[in-house]
Amino acid sequence: MQDDRFAVLAEKFLEGMLTPEEQKELAEFLNKDPSLRQELAELKDIGEVMKVIKLKSPDEEAMERFWSVVYNRIERAVGMILLSLGAILLLAYGVYMLISDFLRDPSVPIVVRLGVVGVVLGLIVLLVSVVKERLAILKVDRYSKEVDK
User: Fold this and answer.
1) What is the dihedral of CA 89, 93, 99, 103, to 10 degrees?
2) Given Cys at both, which of 24, 26, 32, 99 links 9, Cβ 3.0 to 4.6 Å?
């Protein structure tokens, strides 16, 4: 618990944000344990080195590669979403055409017809989801080619 408090005080000290009460508290820590004085000095030295270090900016070619990867991932995600939506719509239309006689039959209660539509649409969404998941797993499953099924 005291180590955590010392760490907070040391961080505030290095940032120059100690209140007078916290300065007294830090001084008490340093008087009680001389190793903390050494640790604070090391942190101060590290902080000075970090101020001098400058990160190298990536060159234009590296930035182009980075953004091309980002764009490719976005394009693939959008493509997969559109493909899924299209498949859901086409399958739903096909199933609707198959059971349209059933749905148009006035002797079948509306609740039953709506229930059948809900079940069919749910099955279509689940089917597309499972197929999409299996395709994604096949891309990253490194053992799928090694194991005999």
Assistant:
1) 90
2) 26
pLDDT tens track for 31-86: 888 888 888 888 888 888 887 888 788 888 888 888 888 888 899 889 989 998 89
Three-state DSSP state, 107: coil
Half-sphere exposure of 16 (CA within 13 A, CB side): 1
User: How many other CB atoms are found less than 10 A from the CB of residue 65?
Assistant: 12
Half-sphere exposure (Cβ direction) of 23: Cα atoms closer than 13 Å: 6
Other C-beta atoms within 10 Å of 26: how many? 20
Residue with tokens 């008087």: 31
Question: How far is residue 123's CA from residue 91's CA, in Å, rounded to a whole number?
Answer: 10
Instruction: Give yes or no for a contact between 141 and 147, defined as CB atoms under 8 angstroms apart.
Output: no
Identify the H or E element spanning 33: none
Mean pLDDT, residues 116-133: 87
**Is 70 exceeded by the pLDDT of residue 2?**
no
d(CA 55, CA 111): 66
